[in-house]
Amino acid sequence: MTSAVSGAAAGDPVEPRPPLVSVRGLGIRHDGATTWSPADASFDIAPGEVVLLLGPSGAGKSTLTLALDGLIPHAVPAALEGSIVVDGLDTRESLVAELSTRVAMVFQDPDAQLVTGTLLDEVAFGPENLRMPVDDVLARAEDSLRRVGLWERRGENPDRLSGGGRQRLAIACALAMGSPLLVLDEPTANLDPQGIEEVYAALGELVAAGDRAILLVEHNLDAAARLTDRVVVLDQAGRTVADGTADEVLRGRADELHEMGVWLPVATLAAMRLRSAGWALDPLPLDPDELRVALDAATSPAPATAVPNSSTSLAETGVSPESGPDATYWRSSGRATGDAAPLIRVRGLRTRRGRAEILHGIDLDVRAGEFVAIVGANGAGKTTLLQSIAGVVPVPRGQVTVDGVDVSRTDLRSLSRRIGFVFQNPEHQFIAPTVHDELAHGLRLQHLPEAEVEQRVHDVLRRFGLEDKADVHPFLLSGGQKRRLSVGTALVAGAPVLALDEPTFGQDRARADELLGLLQGLNRDGTTVLVVTHDMQLVTEYATRTIVIGDGRVLADAPTAEVFSDETLIRSAGLRLPPLRRAFAGLERHPELAGITRLADVPYGSGFDPAPASATPTEPTAAR
Amino acid sequence: MTAATIDPYATTPAGGRFLFTLNPLAKFAAPLPPMLVLVFVRDLATPLAFLALAYIVLLAGARLTVRIVLLLAVALPVAALVIGLGMSLWVDASRVDTSVTVVELGGWRLYGGAVLIGMATGIRLAAIVALALVAGLTTNGADLVRASVQQLRVPYRVGYTALAAFRFVPRFGHELDVIRQAHRVRGSHGGRGPFAALARWWGYIVPLLAGAIRHAERVALAMDARAFGAYPDRTERHLVPWRPRDTAFVVAFWIVSAVLLVAFFPWTL
Q: What residue in A sits closest to B142 (Cα-Cα)?
């Protein structure tokens, strides 16, 4: 792979091969939308090259991928400006079928890419559509399935694969099209940590073989950066602002990208902070291993140059996790330590679904003001635990108390004053025709006087930035607004506890960060937050306490930093260490950094803006 | 878990049983004429004869799992009996043979003629169902689609899209569960009674449809991206041929049916 690029970069004496794909001045406007996104994108993809497409939320990255194989404008109605030439074919004049042999797609949702009953039929589906002879179809199917390690399971129904397995199958299906370019649009956004690792292992082998070019749109840059040859960056308006090798762009222009609101690898962000605090880190590392090596090679700056982080000083969090509880944890839950009784009390909880017992005796207490993350592999029972606490699923008597009442004996109306539940997909819980009524619904159920209902609805609308949307149908809001409304409806009845089920699932990084920022604000104001999530970096950034669930039991329940200091435990629970933890845990020369798990705890100097203004996500105009 | 979910793609194990080796269309074509005729049959003997024929074919040609045995030996006879009895109560007593009285309760009498008509109806329905099971128990969805495309010239775009849509069913079932759960948590129960239930279900439809349309769009894009529908035909890796034995099965079934129908003519009580 690297050879292909270095060859091209060195200016081969042989005539350079024409690019596989050539995008020039591309602008796309969805029918019914007012803005062009992307607005003016230009770049080439050479055969065998791995290109990472970056840009802030709303820059039109996904839209661009749909245009590469002609789905835009042939299958999705949209106006297209500029040109895309794939292997000599103008996408506007060619059929999607013709282009599909040159550009193969892997989409975000593995379930939405399955059409047949077995793995083998699934992979054969594309070649069959191309009318290839049966022997060739089978040869391609076998080759593709072997490359992603699924050949042995070819006779099974794809439903029986894990999320990571299904996404590997989607990659095999794309390979079977025989196209020289693979386009992957957020291929790991719907996966758990184990699935992400599986998909990147498969992609890594693909890159090593070097026979396909890859265009990757991905927010999980920690795994993607090391596979990448070239990086193309779109700005907020959807114009190409950077196009160069991973070194030139990610390392060389990191500050500029960060200012623009482009998400960078966590290791790079940490290094930028440290560099501003006086550490000599040049070149910037792109993944946890590089960061660790670079740090061990560097000498720590004189203490005076390091400006302590405004919110947390290094001394506080630098405590080695083994030596005692994390200072952050105790401080944030400190306001609750005076209370005698915990807010949530779970004793010997055994929740059943049908005949199967999902939870096998869970004990835990949550005090007011805590921010608790519940993590675990798929099927471990973490969602069931959250739903049991919130009374969403029936639980046996006397096992769960929230704010002094037994959940199993309380009707949902009075329970909603104590705990608010936010479902994974906000649309599922919308029941009223306007945003205003949506918020008023819970209050009217409690027979509050209409004046008070109006007052509280207005407060929530203002707090969640939805004032001008009061009369809009909830389904017509943008993704971020829907999510804010769902949190608002859960809190409007005055619940002191908020429970969220995978609120960042399938969302891009910017939107996930926006939501978590909102939750952190609520938590600071006193709301107790319980969240089930797969995103380990988010867990370490925000949660003060982490509960690891495995096979219906509590595997660990401790301050977040302590939980993530035990890698054996984390891996055995089907989870993976977050990137920062991987970078800092192995440090030999700088024990003062070894305890850091949160980006917010990495010290930085005056030259670094941890939250650039332009990074605040803007709402895309079309709610697609 | 796996037993409870019906997998429309599951390849039926051949096991040497002859029904599994037949073309699905043959299994549908063979019992179709007697099924249509049975709709107009009124006696007891003709449906009984066809019930027996269907059972013989199934016992000889299908693989007998516990579920199938229970279906044939218990569920179908019980259903026939229940429907038969129900029908005999419903029959207009003034127009039946009143020579035999089966039950007498006060002034109300159940006559033998009514029971006969009721049972004839029950057994007729059972015979039609049993004939449909000849194909139903031994055919998988994918093969039926393939045979329809290959022999009936159904456009493959229709056939394979229908097959892909099978995948939607369990997904939407799950999504509906989640929506109901979410609405319950929001406290939108809305009270009891048919009107409240109607209003409740109406509330489920919007989010379900929104999710369904989005999912269908994504599946359609994924299929387009893999060249589905690019050419007037596509490679058929699994040929479902029409063999001489399919013709033989259909002709034999039709001859036996004709003989039975002639023998029991005019099919009235």
A: A117
Residue A263 domain-assigned (yes or no): no
Place of tokens 């749109």: A217
Distances (CA, A) of A155 to A32, A94, A257, B10: 44, 35, 46, 10
* Cα distance between residue A582 and residue A327, in whole Å: 21
Percent of chain B scored above 90 by pLDDT? 38
Q: Please report the beta strands in chain B, taking only residues with DSSP state E, as ranges in sequence order.
A: 101-105, 108-111
What is the model's pTM?
0.82
Q: What is the DSSP string of B4-29?
A: TS--TTPPPP-TT-GGGGS-HHHHHH
With residue A272 as reference, give the H or E element that holds it.
helix A266-276
Alpha carbon distances (Å) from B165 to A126, A304, A573:
17, 66, 35
Question: Which chain B residues are within 8 Å of A138, Cβ to Cβ?
Answer: 237
Residue B72 carries which side chain, given as an amino acid letter? L
Q: Which of A71, A97, A393 sits opposite B221 (nearest CB)?
A: A71
Tell whether A125 lies on the interface with B, counting CB pairs under 8 A: yes
Where do the DSSP E strands lie in A343-433?
344-349, 352-353, 356-357, 362-366, 371-375, 400-402, 405-406, 419-422
Instruction: Annotate A315-354 with three-state secondary structure.
Output: HHHCCCHHHCCCHHHHHHCHHHCCCCCCCEEEEEECCEEC
> How far is the C-alpha of A291 from the C-alpha of A226, rounded, in Å?
13
Q: Is A130 on the interface with B (CB under 8 A)?
A: yes
Domain of residue A44: give its range. Answer: 2-102+179-253
- Put simply, whether B190 touches A (Cβ < 8 Å) is no
Kindly determine whether residue B234 and residue A114, on different chains, have CB atoms separated by under 8 Å. no
Q: Which of residues 210-239 of B touch A (CB under 8 A)?
A: 210-211, 215, 218-231, 233-237
Question: Can you give the CATH number for the domain in which A191 is found?
Answer: 3.40.50.300
A:449-488 residues touching chain B, CB 8 A cutoff: 475
Specify the pLDDT at position A586.
Answer: 78
Q: What is the pLDDT of residues A212-248, one digit of tens each?
A: 999 999 888 888 888 999 999 999 888 999 999 988 9
Cβ count within 10 A of residue A587: 17
Rounded to whole angstroms, how far apart are CA atoms A248 and B15?
Answer: 63
Determine the Cα–Cα distance for residues A177 and A136; give it in Å rounded to an integer: 11
Query: How many domains in chain A?
Result: 1
Q: Tell me which residue of B161, B134, B121, B130 sits closest to B145, measured CA to CA.
A: B161
Domain membership of residue A560 (yes or no) is no
Residue A226 lies in a domain: yes
Residues A26, A83 contacting (CB under 8 angstroms) = yes
- Residue A133's pLDDT is 94
Domain annotation covers residue A27: yes
